[in-house]
Amino acid sequence: MTTDPRSVAGKRLEIAERTQILIVGAGPAGIAAARHAHRGGAQVLLVDEHPVPFETMGESVPQIWGGRMGGAVRNRNAMTERMLEARPDLVELFEAGIDIRLGTACWGLFANQPNLGWMPGLVAGLVDEGQGSHLVGFDQAIVASGRRDMGLAFPGWDLPGVLGAGAALMLARLYDALDSRRAVMLGSTPEALLAALDLIDAGVTIAAVVEQAATPAAPEDLVARIRAAGVEIVTGEAPRGVTSDADGVTGLVLRNRTIPCDSVLLGVGAVPMIDLLHAAGARCAFDNDRGGFVPLLGTGGETSLPGIRAAGDCAGIWPAKTADPALAEAEGRLAAGAALAALGLADAPAENAPQPGPAADLGEYRKAWVRASVVEAVAEMPVCQCEEVTAREILEVSPPRYLNAPHLPNLTRSLTQILGEGPPDPDQIKRLTRAGMGPCQGRRCREQIQALLALQEDLSLGVVPLAGYRSPVRPISLAAAAMPEDPAIAAAWDSWFGMPRQWVPFWDVEEHYTVAALATEKEHVSE
Amino acid sequence: MSANNPIPGIDAGDDNRGAPVIVIGGGVTGLSTAFWLAEAGVDVLVLERGITGWEASGRNGGGCSHHHSPLFAEEQRLWPMMDELLGYPTEFRPNRIRIALSPEQFALYGRAVANARKQGFRADDLDAQTVRELVPLAGDNVHAGHYYHFGGHANPHRTVQAYAWALRDRGGRLRQHVTVTGFRRQGDRVTAVETDKGVFGCDHLVIAAGPQTGRLAAMLQVDIPMRAARAEMIVTEPLPLMPLGGIDGNGLYGRQTLRGNLAYGGGPHEWVETEEQPGGPRPSTPLAGSIARRVAELLPKAAHARVIRSWAGIIENTPDGRPVIDRPAPWQNLTVATLSGVGFGLSPASGRALMQLVMRGHCDFADLSSLRLARFDRLEPDWDALQGWLPAAMASA
């Protein structure tokens, strides 16, 4: 059997370690999964990226931290201590002997599938600041990567003090390092109001909840709890801007008033964090009742990639699940049970996964917010902060600013003229405008761009495709990404395919090409 | 800002009107061909199954230095004028420095330089110190380098769209999300293209559909031997611009983009099945780490730069890795093109050559004899197995 020496055939991935069940994310779902898998007799590796390096937090990765991390987050040991205080279950799991690694991010999951078949099995890339990257082989993975906040642009939203509602909660509860005392919440979804109540409990004053619609989005009982906590609910308003000083936001500007505050919390959408799963090739679809794009799941939380499962918020977010961690825990246990069964260590679990009820039209709600805040903004501001792309530039498919191209309002280049028969594709818009192409990897703008395109073309939100995620789903330095390598890869390395005749100059090409003729060597340009 | 009209088709009102020339494939080769045809006054229609430039045309290194090709001289002549010709920016920037980290690399890269010099292009040898002066991110590990006073690089995404827009400006049509299902023929002529959106009549057909070219041509009993492979690239966050973006070497192809990102690829590829239905996920693999290692070696002062994406592309290859640009027998009105994995940089020239093939039957500015399909007439039937080009599953079966 001939093999192409320059191909992956015969090359090995340097897999540094193996585990039976890899669990990504040590929130309620991940902890429950780890406990269940461990008790079932499996070898478990539980990783969580928190505490996240300070520099990474500054890039709004993986949450929109908005510069409101207290100075304490620079001290990673202290932050690890705080995480263990916040999640005492982790201590119990440590003591039970589970391999738990905090401050370790999973930047990629890799599975053989159509067009990709050479890997020795399921593989994950892990990175630990200071220790670089390595590969872990696993039999089953449970991704419990949680949620993040939908970004929402308004003039000044790129200033320190504008952060995600969930990010604020994480800083307050997990890091005990939220640098904010008085905040305004944008959005009145159940997730936003539950976050507001939790933040109040953590000692933050919520100066107001601002909702663009005429009435709050959350059910009455939750609205009543917010009002009972003394929080004003301002409806029919969207941010017109902020007041600020050298430390960032000092107030939120509405139509006729300014609400003093040191932070503005983005609470218009809680988004399942599917980056790892989508980048791995798991099929995802828009599900209104689960908070947006989520992986398509079979029994035991299995994605379209066999052996890779999802549990917790990344599998779907709905009010009851937000209110009660028991639902995420149930999903974690179920995924772990199914993973154990796949390993032959248990019978398949009989229970069913918790299911969401029908939700209000999430697409209309997010579009309405983007219309009120972004489209009707009184000034132009970046929607994509990394690459500084405005809503107008996105919709006009303008070349990026670094080209200094003259602005030509040329119909030929408009969005509608590049569509063809399909819906607008955010990845196509990204390639042309660079919106979503920066170091935050589209975390702040992805849902807004989806909504902008849907508004422009008068489509329902879910019709606009998901802007693709790519590994590494966390930015990692070239130096850290350089993992140990099979010497056979180095020995056969070529900048391209290393074919014996590809770069032979055209005046030296034989009239007929046969494989047999390759026995005669010709000078050629490959490594 | 919002529109109340239904999704506007690009050709609303045109419906399923055919065209004197139909090009199948909205990648860089098909679009360039269509652009040159429209520029010459031909009414041309491009049919694309997905989105323009979605596959390899938009996923490559953007290099424009194909010294081995009969189209090299025309490639070099055209690139500097493409922005003006198309009316849209391609981000083309001329010249390149290829860095060798060892005497072996320097000797190897010297072969390309010899090819270019033989065709009248200038390239200078650089010592290590000069390389470091010209390439601020280079390090102490430089052995030597070459400065190409030709070639360069462009932005694949922007170039593909520039072709598409320029085509439209000249009255050409592009329909995306149209899948070809068959052909109608009369004697030795193709008369129409059958698709999921209807039947489009044509006087001449061009097939330039990347990895799908072989499958489509086979429907017309034309055998274009090819196999598809997956290759990967990585990109970093933006860094301050170096004086010259066209920097590669150390077993890598790629560039610093005008935005400042380092975008590089290289290393092992994987032979895969040609998809019946293209457009599936294109996950990359941990090979990104091997590319990152070599970028950090090539540009050590960028080792801190963070990788923010990697991606994979599917590339078709003919048995010798060289393009096929031809009008295959017995058809009187069929032109086929596969650029065999190196189509981006050559696209201004290949499109112009294909335009001439369609309109005149031959190319007047380059000798395309080395790109004829007939060179495979004596090819072994099991050439793919003999070369080890079978997907792993197929090879082990």
Automatic annotation (TrEMBL), chain A:
The keyword Zinc does not apply. Residues 20-317 form the FAD/NAD(P)-binding domain. Keywords: Oxidoreductase. GO terms for molecular function: oxidoreductase activity. Gene3D superfamilies: BFD-like [2Fe-2S]-binding domain (1.10.10.1100), FAD/NAD(P)-binding domain (3.50.50.60). The keyword Transmembrane does not apply. It holds the Pfam family Pyr_redox_2. SUPFAM superfamilies: FAD/NAD(P)-binding domain. This is Thioredoxin reductase. It comes from Paracoccus versutus.
UniProtKB/TrEMBL annotation, chain B:
PANTHER family: GLYCINE OXIDASE (PTHR13847:SF289), SARCOSINE DEHYDROGENASE-RELATED (PTHR13847). Pfam families: DAO (PF01266). This is Glycine/D-amino acid oxidase-like deaminating enzyme. Keywords: Oxidoreductase. It comes from the Bacteria. Residues 21-63 form the Rhodanese domain. GO terms for cellular component: cytoplasm. Gene3D superfamilies: D-Amino Acid Oxidase, subunit A, domain 2, FAD/NAD(P)-binding domain. It comes from Paracoccus versutus (Thiobacillus versutus). One of its GO terms (molecular function) is oxidoreductase activity.
